Amino acid sequence: MRRNKGGFRHNKEKPLGKGLYVEVRNNDLNWALRKFKKKVQEDGVLQEFKERQFYTKPSEKRKRAKAAGRARWLKKLEKQRLD
Fold it and tell me: Which end of the chain is less crowded, N or C, counting CB atoms within 10 A of the terminal residue's CB?
């Protein structure tokens, strides 16, 4: 154990390598899979992979961002009109 600012830092077991992980408890694989999917979605791993899979020109990125903003704006207007 190394001394750390007057206290002790205990060596706890940590998973090897970087990345997301979920411990499987009581052999409940469905629970672990749901938690893992949620972590992956919150971290944006799949979205980043999809974005980096092919090169997109900066002009195309701006065009998509503008279209997404317009879609959000129209959705907001529609919601306000219904209320």
Answer: C
